[in-house]
Amino acid sequence: MKKENLxxxxxxxxxxxxxxxxxxTVPLNIFEPRYIDMINDSMGSDKLIGMVQPKNxxxxxxxxxxxxxxxxTSFNENExxxxxxxxxxxxxxxxxxxxxxxxxxxxxxxNFENFYDDLNIQNENLKFSDLKLIFKDLKSLFEKRxxxxxxxxxxxxxxxxTINALAMASPFTLEEKQILLETKNxxxxxxxxxxxxxxxxxxxxxxxxxx
Length: 211
Fold this sequence. Notes:
alpha+beta; Archaeosine Trna-guanine Transglycosylase, Chain: A, domain 4; single chain
């Protein structure tokens, strides 16, 4: 997508416990009527929606300033009228202000200026061997949580896809993932992941008890 084709107003989907990064693809099950409306409207236009974290659980929650715009790349409707979509992260955005409308879902005026690099194939000065070393502890963390990382598969991806996929899927807190989302570039994101990892004791992940 070219930056001159980016929208100025975007429907936003405030979804707790969910963050999408550029160049990653995730499935979403849509069942709330207002978001079914959103997806219907989006499918009839540019197939673009904005994913953003809510800051609280209010009926109309406050939103983080930074989210990620995704494009619907797959769409299916089941017998109950629910939608199953796949959303591919395109570019991060900053919310400038919310737009008043008669729609059931929320729309915001947005700005992409700080994140145009998301549209490019990154040529970072990182080697995959360095990345594997950096994520050695994260690999252990994933495996202790029952996740298996296909490092050979990741090696076939670009570095930005790999770093963003690991950041999105990592067992970090939502606040930590939001920090990663807001981090300017891959080099800084890689460093920030390493910093977050150093704050963790792996025992915390072994002794998690669900009450």
